[in-house]
Design brief:
The protein has about 350 residues and is an alpha/beta fold. Helix content is about 40%, strand content about 15%. The chain has a seven-stranded parallel sheet, with helices on both faces. A two-stranded parallel ribbon has the order 7-10. About 45% of the residues are buried. It has a domain of about 230 residues: NAD(P)-binding Rossmann-like Domain (Rossmann fold), CATH 3.40.50.720.
């Protein structure tokens, strides 16, 4: 199999490539991204051809690679809530417009597409748990700009599905529900509120900042460890007997539901079990959504995935519980801490 991964250096891409290199020696990967820090030595691996460049400046190259690939996995997207509010146009331009061009390349060259949707397409739906085939997709008013991400992704889903129904595209849509694990974000850089929730809280703790809980941290999410997520993606890629063709799959762990406050408390406890952080000054305090994100933010009380489709068609089921997911995530960041700190010191960061 020859696989094109756009956003190869990201959280999903880097973990997926590492797994493929370890378990699929006959697969070939062509990757594109702006950086290589999460891939490290994988960039030079015999199975990997990597181009360090901007997706937006690589249109001709991307189409040429789509034509030669067996499967395309476009993972390039802005997926941080703070940016949905602060720069919604950038979210639309990258998450929808740039990815639409890739989808059309797949249609043109008859290349199979595996596209990352999101749990956010369900918006404020009250149809818990969220069902891929029946749940309503409900978003808030226009002035709540955080919904531009949800709408951009939902429109991509609809376009891809329409091409599939018309017979122009073999596709699979997968919807991640709060994946966590190694390489989620660089927690060692002091970058404020731009990270996703797990890495943001971890960054706060290691830098001695207070964890800020928006509206008390009462919102609840279901967290999935990256190893379980990669297992699901591999089943989609392998596509035995066409099991993933034209399918939409929630990829999450309904049994790993926790409030954001519980996440903060348990993550703080895990980090404080390490001697260097047992006396961290980090405290948990409440704030408002308007203060933290800006007036364009709106939240959802709960997101719970129904995973019947993944269980039945892919034979997939998550196995890593919530405490183990947190422990493994923290262990990774503590293990790579010295190298990352040396890197930041060398660069003046």
């Amino acid at each position: 199999m020859k696989l094109l991964i756009l956003g190869a250096n990201g959280f999903i891409g880097s973990n997926l490539i590492a797994h493929i290199v370890a378990h699929k020696p006959d697969w070939k990967i062509v990757g594109l991204d702006l950086a290589t820090d999460k891939l490290g030595p994988l960039v030079g691996h015999r199975q990997v051809t990597f181009r360090q460049a901007d997706m937006l400046a690589s249109r001709e190259w991307i189409e040429a690679q789509v034509k030669e690939a067996d499967v395309v996995l476009p993972l390039v997207a802005i997926a941080t809530p703070a940016t949905y509010v602060s720069n919604p146009i950038a979210v639309f331009e990258l998450d929808f417009e740039a990815n639409l061009a890739v989808v059309r390349d797949c249609v043109k060259h008859k290349t199979r597409l595996i596209f990352p949707s999101t749990s956010e397409v369900y918006g404020m739906s009250e149809d818990l748990p969220y069902d891929e085939e029946e749940s309503r997709l409900v978003t808030g008013p226009i002035h709540k700009q955080r919904w531009i991400y949800s709408c951009s992704k939902q429109m991509m889903d609809r376009v891809i599905y329409a091409y599939g129904v018309r017979g122009d595209l073999r596709f699979t849509l997968f919807r991640p529900f709060n994946w966590m694990g190694p390489k989620l974000d660089d927690v060692w850089s002091n970058k404020g509120t731009s990270s996703r929730v797990v890495s943001q809280f971890l960054s706060d703790i290691v830098h001695g900042r207070d964890i800020q809980l928006v509206d008390g941290g009462t919102s609840r999410r279901c967290f999935l460890y990256i190893d379980d997520a990669i297992d699901a993606l591999m089943r989609i890629l392998e596509n035995k007997d066409g099991c993933a063709d034209n399918g939409i799959f929630n990829i999450g762990h309904p049994g790993n539901e926790a409030s954001i406050r519980q996440l903060a408390e348990q993550l703080l406890a895990v980090v404080k079990s390490y001697p260097d952080y047992k006396d961290t000054p980090t405290r948990i305090r409440d704030t408002t959504a308007d203060t933290y994100y800006g007036k364009g933010y709106q939240d959802v009380d709960r997101r719970i995935p129904a995973i019947v489709q993944a269980e039945r068609k892919l034979g997939w089921k998550p196995v890593t519980d919530f405490p183990s997911s947190l422990q493994k995530t923290v262990e990774y960041y503590m293990r790579v801490r010295p190298a990352l700190q040396e890197c930041h010191n060398a660069s003046g960061g």
